[in-house]
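== Folding task for one protein ==

=== Format: two labelled lines per protein ===

==== Paired sequence and structure tokens ====
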Amino acid sequence: MIKSPITSTAVVIAAVAMIAAAGCTRRTPAPTPMEPSTPTQPTSPTGPTVPTGPVDGGPIAPGSIRDFSINVGDRVYFDFDSYSIRSDASRILAAQAAWLSRYPQVQVRIEGNADERGTREYNLALGARRAEAVRSFLIANGIPASRIDTISYGKERPVAFGSNEQAWAQNRNAHTTITGGAPQ
């Protein structure tokens, strides 16, 4: 039997194509058994407690950004679809107002945030209302409005990743950032 060069070439091409196709097939790993999930109650994160005594001057410099975030708390949380100040948040905000009164040179920016649910536009508006609620609280507690800026990040800057109540609760917040007048 005599093979023509065209037949031999066709056989080689077909063999190469089959080998290539076999190498490109998807291999899915065997499924791993999942642990049964236990339902948990939604929890709301809480920030640091309000200091009861003077700010410790140890390794943390009084009036510094670190002093503010560790000893006072720089983040407050909100309920779902709400911009009302909660009781746990009002304690932190009262401590922020006291700290800002103690350090009148400090400027802050309130960053309003939302969880991933809802449209981008809705969450930007909700974040703005949250930032404004915190700003209004600080102003009502004696901090001049000229020292406070606000911005909304909506759902664009999550602090926790995930699509569950725990992550959503952490992302519904207003973050007070020191923008000037305090040592690092």
